Amino acid sequence: MKVKISTIKNLVEGKIISGFFICKKFNVKVSRLGDPFIDLLLEDSHGSVRAKIWSFVDEYQKQISLNEPCAIKGKVVSFNQSLEIEVYHISKIANNLYDKYGFNKDLLLKKVNQDISLIFKNVIENIKILNHDCKKDVLKLFNGNKDKIVKIPSLDKKYNLNGGFLFQINSVMELNKKIPKSYKYNRNLVSLGILIKNIGLIDYFDDNFNKIEEESLSTGFTIKSYEIIKKYFDKYDDIFPYFQTLIIKNKLLKFPEINIVKYLYKIDLLMRDE
What we know:
- By secondary structure, the protein is α/β, with parallel strands linked by helices.
- The chain folds into two domains: about 5-105, CATH 2.40.50.140; about 115-270, no CATH class.
- About 40% of the residues lie in helices and about 20% in strands.
- It has helices at about 55-60, 115-130, 135-145, 145-150, 165-175, 185-195, 200-205, 215-235, 240-250, 255-270, and strands spanning about 5, 15-30, 35-45, 45-55, 70-80, 80-90.
- Strands 2-3-4-6-5 form a five-stranded mixed beta barrel.
- A hairpin with a 5-residue loop joins strand 2 (about 15-30) and strand 3 (about 35-45).
- The longest helix has 17 residues, at about 215-235.
- The chain is elongated, with a radius of gyration of 21 Å.
């Protein structure tokens, strides 16, 4: 049976809907009658909507993960002059179970508000001017995975967008350029670190931006990153240990540029509007 999938832009009061959303917030609260309920903020590429779960609270809590997609069936209701969804059923999206209903996380994420092709071009131009032989393999890595790189999100909330991974890299690289030359550090190493810091994301998501494995972020993401740097950069005796230390925190090796990379990412997040 074909199911009509609803989006936030076509919600109508009183309608029973089925749809795919990303859970941006959720809290377990207590009603005036003393009953627990779940208060949610759901989002798709068209906007956001509040939702509430009034029954099976303990069970449905297990089906909710922040910034992850979920499938919902419920009724559109009006509360305080705004539309909400009264959720009848919610489930995690995993193992391609909902692909036959048209699920694609690409359609749920808000898109970067700039031309992603121009951002990619700018990043490639910045790679080309790097002063290290490994730039040819960085180019191979980025060009060979372009289709994914221009779409996948970053894990940071402010860049959890379609194209957010690349947008964040470009933003941090531009920030690095603005640091006065009077500050002496290896800008080449910092640029390489910015490019590689979160590189595991290109293998951490499938084509629908679902996490490929159920491992924790710290485990799965680190493994994916290490596999990539080993594949592309193992032959570089100076750069591979730097990337390795950036990703797995090898305390025996000291690279001050790694701290600069991390601080630049933090500063960029602090300055970036929601």
